[in-house]
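If your schedule permits, I should be very grateful for your opinion on a structural question. Kindly check, if you would, that the fold set down in the tokens agrees with what the sequence suggests. Thank you for your consideration; the sequence and its tokens are set out here:
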Amino acid sequence: MLINIEKLVPHPANDQILPSLTKEEKKNLEESLTKQIKPVPLDVLERKDGMYLVLDGNNRLSLLNQNGHKGDLECFILGKEEDWSFEKQEEYMLNTNLTRRNLSKKQKMDIAKMQTAKGRTQDEVSKILGISQQTVSNYTKDIKETRQDVLKESIARLRGAGLTQEKTGEVVGLAQQSVANIEKELNIPQNVENREIEPIILEVKNKLSPNEVLCLASSKPRVKKIKSNTLSEDYKKLKEENRLLNEELQYLKKEKKEMSLKIEEQANSIKEWELKASSVISYSENTLTDEHLGLSEKDEQSNDNEDEQPEDERLDMPDEDEQLGTSDEEKQLLSEWTFNFVPKLGKQCAKNAITQEKIEFNTKSKENARAELLKKLKERR
């Protein structure tokens, strides 16, 4: 039967039921239409409004409309739309395309995923596509799990909002008993308030739509992969940072050990110098005797004899302090000290009569030695 192209309506679920044409399939179809090869009639259902719903031939109709085709097309009327349920329409569309089109493995797997997202069992899908159930399971496991998760969430929301098990089953497409079985696994808070249920039902139906389920299922592996990659990268970074920190730690330990050895060496050196200094001080204080200074009893007697002059001569000689112009204060400082020239050392030596302290002067002159001693004594004050 010829039907005007303007009365033909594409099936709204065609893209959800069947895979899109490959580039090669589309090219071949366009060439056949351009060469005016007689196309296979379109299979349609008659609608109440006088229009015709296309079950088979949606791709041809789409290309003809794109090319601006006008006029009639050969069609085969299968019956009235109201006599065909959506499931029956879907089954017919699948069967005719699987028979006519030489679908690739990928296209068959796309169909398997879509049918699983709609709620078909793996056994049903394997029979429709003519492939093993294990093959279907391998390609649709994540979709089946995702749809099951969405079903549980949907049932929990509907039952929590006060919808009956029977009505809930109608919304999610399950029998009442199936809803009851799933509900046993859930902890559903009963919140029967005066709330509108319709928005919840609409939201649940949208979430259970095949495209939404496919979208959720396809996003899960990507998220896992991203997380896995991120964790792997983070682990590598942490491992590298740990390696660098260990290297730095070993370097610091080595540096600490070297510093400890240096400190120990310096401490030992200081102790040695302290011992030497102590020995020198002890030697200068305790072992410097008249004998070390080169004095003998004869020298002292000789010096004493030299000092013993006739009384008349001493009276005639001027006072040594007077000769040097020494003040009373300086005389007081020098009163405890005696000076002797030590021939062996070739220098003057002063000795304190009270403390027995001895001081050597690098000079043979007694006057110079007195002047140096005065300076030292004043500095001490």
Q: What stands out?
A: Residues 290-319 have pLDDT under 50 and may be disordered. Residues 168 and 274 are 98 Å apart (CA to CA). Residues 297-306+320-380 form one domain.
